[in-house]
Amino acid sequence: MALPYLIRRLLAVFPVMLFVVLFVFLLLRLAPGDPAAVLAGDSATPAQLEQVRQALGLDRSVLTQFGLWISQLAKGDLGVSLISGLPVARIIGQRLEPTLWLTVLTMLFSSAAAIPLGVIAAWKHNKPADRVITFATVLGFSVPFFVIGYVLMLVLAIGLGWLPVQGYRSPAAGLGGFLRHQILPVLTLSVPLIALIARITRASMLEVLGSDYVRTARAKGLRESVVLCRHALRTASLPILTVIGNGFALLIGGAIVTESIFNLPGIGRLTVDAVLARDYPVIQGIILLTSGFYVLLNLLVDLAYVLLDPRVRYE
Asked: What is the DSSP letter of 1?
């Protein structure tokens, strides 16, 4: 019975990605600034600018440019950087590893820390533990990324000397060095995300803990840990899963700031460099990559609903 639901969700991905592709193309074509002028330089003559426009295809109609761009995307070609002259796919591929590790480790750590905090806050509702956790989550979600990053850097790296201040170490160069370089960026990104997931977990658990079947499970003499984890948390998991999926959007924005603070050669730093240099093909490639990743993640979240709640199959 879940197959029609899965097919509908898969088919819904295509119009969304088509809209993203069209939006990215028009946004950068209609933005102020001339890519030909950026590539040719300030001292270029009108004749040189026209030659560059012809080479980039900017002298053609917008519809023709869009058709050519779509045909290139279908072949996996994201274009060539206006600054370095390298293929955009290669540039993004070289910067993907630091951002991928940062995002995955942040999400794993945030989920592992936030869900138990939210469960405890709901279990100890209106008690000191609940008030402390609620205050900490409000504070954590209110502080900007760059403030958290600089405070952690000042205390743990400069003050105590426990961790490196900046830089990236690949896992291939040694697991210990890799983890030491990841701690500060992961903590910086995790604080607001932990606050968000913990608050949603608390709200969802409070709603479920007042249900009849939870009172029945307690009346049967089940241990409180079994009632909380096996019965209440599973039912409350759909909103938690949703906010975890949406949390990746928060990570994408936070990675730009975090990678700049800790000098990580990832997609965030590449985005800043490309925007400052008006490297339009690189900007387009990054937006398409992050948008596609976000759409795919939401698709996986929707599919996970079917596994967690069979009622979704019939909607």
From this structure: -
> 53: which residues sit within 8 A by CB, 6+ positions away?
36, 59
Task: Answer yes or no: pTM beyond 0.70.
Answer: yes
What are residue 220's phi and psi, to 5 degrees? -75, -5
Range(s) for CATH 1.10.3720.10 in the chain? 96-277
CA distances to 111, 112, 145, 302 from 141, rounded to whole Å, are 15, 17, 9, 26
Query: What pLDDT digit, counting tens, does each position of 244-253 carry?
Result: 877 777 777 7
| Distance from C-alpha of 98 to C-alpha of 266, rounded to nearest angstrom | 5
Handedness of CA 71, 76, 80, 81 (dihedral sign): positive
Percentage of the chain exceeding pLDDT 90: 1
**Residues 57 and 49 sit within 8 Å (Cβ to Cβ):** no
Q: Please measure the distance between the N-terminal and C-terminal CA atoms of the chain and give it in whole angstroms.
A: 10
CA distance 283 to 274: 6
What residue type is 234 in one-letter code?
R
Determine phi and psi for 278, rounding to 5 degrees.
55, 45
- Going by the DSSP 8-state scheme, the letter that residue 221 receives in this structure is T
- Topology of domain 96-277 in CATH is MetI-like fold (1.10.3720)
Cα–Cα distance for residue pair 128/203, rounded to 1 Å? 17
- HSE-up of 224 (CA within 13 Å, CB side)? 5
C-alpha–C-alpha distance, residues 308 and 306, integer Å:
6
